[in-house]
Amino acid sequence: MTEPWLVVIDPQRVFAAPDSPWGSPMFGAIVDPIRTLAARHRTIVTRWVPAVGAARTGSWNAYFEAWPFADRPPTDALFDLVPELADLADDTVDATTFGKWRALESVTGPAPELLLAGVATDCCVISTALAAADAGATVRVVAEACAGSTPENHARALDVMGLYSPQITVV
Which segments of the protein form a coiled coil according to its record (predicted)? Predict the structure, then answer.
């Protein structure tokens, strides 16, 4: 078996900044664990970027009505990687969806072993983990390297992902 891929999900200003409506109060605590993991693994960093124009369909229209502050071009600085994690990537993947599996598979190939870290445990991490496991990937979610929208939501998301053992393991 090959070494697992470390996938650092969405370490972006929009999820790290304390003044952002989507900023995680836990973000600062995951920087060092992510850097430690990245020193030992092939690393993919993902970015969530908004779809624009005709590319935005269905429920995403209502989503941006609820969160108008994020309705910006994908090149807006709000979606930049945070400086303290911007240098980690062997590969970078952008996606307009919470789950990153569809975009990741083109880099990892089918049914890889993944270590997931990043933000938010209760949104993009769980969405990626479930889709990847459903496609046959072996997923380990590194709890101390993930940040939730709140500590309570982080714990709830980890509990849900733990229900998917042995396809998803929380470590």
Answer: none
Q: What is the CATH number of the domain that holds 164?
A: 3.40.50.850
d(CA 129, CA 139): 7
| Average pLDDT value over all residues in the chain | 96
Q: Which residue range(s) make up the domain with 42?
A: 5-170
- State the Cα–Cα distance between residues 141 and 94, nearest whole angstrom: 20
Quickly state the pLDDT bin for 10 (edges 50, 70, 90).
Answer: very high
This prediction has a pTM of: 0.96
Q: Report the number of distinct structural domains present in the chain.
A: 1
Dihedral sign from CA coordinates of 65, 67, 69, 74: negative
* Size of the chain, expressed as the number of residues it contains: 171
Write phi, then psi, for 113 (nearest 5 degrees). Answer: -100, 125
